Amino acid sequence: MWNWEYAFKILPEILTALKITVSATFVAFAVALVVGLMLTLARRSNFKPLSLFAGGFVGFVRSTPLLVQLYFIFYVLPEYGLSLTPFVAGVIGLGLHYSTYLAEVYRGGIESIPPGQWEAAKALNFSTLNTWKKIILPQSIPPVIPVMGNYLITMFKETPILSAITLVEIMQTAKMLGSHSFRYLEAFTIVGVLFLVLSYSSSLMVRRLEVRLNLR
Amino acid sequence: MSVPLKLIYNEDPTKNIDCEVRKNIVRPIVTYNNISKSYGDLQVLKNIDLEIAPGEKVALIGPSGSGKTTLARLLMTLEEPTSGTIEVEGEMLWHQRVNDKLIKANEKHLHQVRGNIGMVFQHFNLFPHMTILRNVMEAPRNVLGLSKEEAKERAVKMLEQVGLSSKIDAYPAQLSGGQKQRVAIARALVMRPKVMLFDEPTSALDPELVGEVLEVIKAIASEGEMAMLLITHEMDFAKDVADRILFFDQGRIIEQGPPKKIFNNPESERLQTFLSRFNRH
């Protein structure tokens, strides 16, 4: 049955692994934010090959499982001379996968901008770059920040999949602790509770943010 | 309400000369050559020829959907003509000449010619995420490349001229419609365009706010060497401000002339009908 002594003994090791999980989440999220924006802008480009490539990329990534993509990056790319550490491969895989979803989030924000804003920017002779930088993005991103926050939480809960490419994150650590001592209950319970606490408190924060943004 | 106004534009030396005479001595600032515009099967402009002299105030009147707004939007490069050419100060707007052949203008060319033109929209189109001051100084800073101090100074001066210097730190949502439109006018004027387009600047306003905006526009008109194209349903205002009135109907200029002639002796039946509808109100 549940053994408190054992639970406290393994807690430090799990918390150390949690750091890996959390940093993988944030780095992957940053990748997704940047690549997602680039995909959105590329899809809107007048240069046909670029918008077709972006559209194709989004379709391809979304229609294949994340696990397959991770295996491909971690196990197949080295055969072509690109060896990545589990962490780097993991954040690239997770980041690229979610960039296709964040691209959709950006698109929604951008399309909600009334045409009059584009017209005013043109009438004032803003360059394309400045129109995006000063007029369009500052208005399209704040309303979609809560949706982005929800994707951050989803990505956090998705990180155990990175154990499949040998990243020693929280789930992998729990598994290893279990197989050492043949006690799985404590390790997996702690992992579950940590996920619950962090995800739930983050979702509360996102909700508060949403209310604040709506008030503006 | 009275609006303190003292505009930057110098008195135009040719101002007192009759507008027909001026046209012959000055090269037009804007020329529409045989311009047509269609959306699918719907032809909204039909072979328009029009010249506007520097400093000339031209009012466009006519029923809704007659093509007035489209005429302005073509000049602001918000829409592309289906056929014909537009010149600004003798320079093609939508086309450029490469090796003696007329080709579609690229963005660089459009950017260069567009700088001569400013526009005030029916729905203001202020930038809601910026303060009033930033709304007005952002373009001088980023488009004209002025320093922050210069851009701010110019913007503040402009906002004083439209009577809104007390609102520079407010956001557009905190202003009345009339105030918003005055900010929009300052935002366009601060770029010192040679031609200003006003697309029904008071149509979206509550009746009691129309006056303050018209007053600002009148004051600008009385000052400058800036040409103006005014699309309006305010007939008294058009009469006061314009050197020339164009009556539009179904994509054509039906009749044009000085305000006196247009309002007192309309020739065409359509203009007579149009004006009688207004007098009844």
Short characterization:
With 216 residues, chain A is an all-alpha fold. Chain A has helices at 4-44, 48-62, 66-76, 86-111, 115-123, 128-140, 145-158, 170-181, 185-215. The model of chain A has no long low-confidence stretch (mean pLDDT 93).
Key terms for this structure?
heterodimer; A: 216 residues; mainly alpha; MetI-like fold; B: 281 residues; alpha/beta; Rossmann fold; six-stranded mixed β-sheet; four-stranded antiparallel β-sheet; 10 helices; globular; disordered N terminus
Please tell me what the overall shape of chain B is. Answer: globular
The level of helicity of chain A is over 70%
Gap between N and C termini of chain A, in Å? 52 Å
Structural class by secondary-structure content of chain B: alpha/beta
The assigned CATH architecture of chain B is: 3-Layer(aba) Sandwich
Helix content of chain B: 25-40%
CA gyration radius of chain A, whole angstroms: 21 Å
Rg from Cα of chain B = 19 Å
Please tell me about this protein's structure.
- The complex is a heterodimer of chains A (216) and B (281).
- With 216 residues, chain A is mostly helical.
- In chain A, 80% of the residues lie in helices and 0% in strands.
- The longest helix of chain A has 41 residues, at 4-44.
- Chain B is α/β, with parallel strands linked by helices and 281 residues long.
- Chain B has a single domain (19-280), classed as Rossmann fold (3-Layer(aba) Sandwich), CATH 3.40.50.
- In chain B, the strands form 3 sheets. A 6-stranded mixed β-sheet of chain B has the order 8-9-10-3-11-12, with helices on both faces. In chain B, strands 2-1-4-5 form a 4-stranded antiparallel β-sheet, with helices on one face.
- In chain B, strand 1 and strand 2 form a beta hairpin.
- In chain B, helix 4 (132-142) packs parallel to helix 6 and helix 6 runs parallel beside helix 7 (207-223).
- Chain A binds chain B through residues 114, 116-117, 119-120, 122-128, 130, 134-135, 138-139, 142, and chain B through 76-78, 107, 111, 114-115, 117-119, 121, 123, 125-129, 138-139, 142-143, 187-188, 191.
- Chain B: This is Amino acid ABC transporter ATP-binding protein, PAAT family (TC 3.A.1.3.-).
- Chain B: Residues 30-275 form the ABC transporter domain.
- Chain B: It comes from Desulfosporosinus lacus DSM 15449.
- Chain B: GO terms for molecular function: ABC-type amino acid transporter activity; ATP binding; ATP hydrolysis activity.
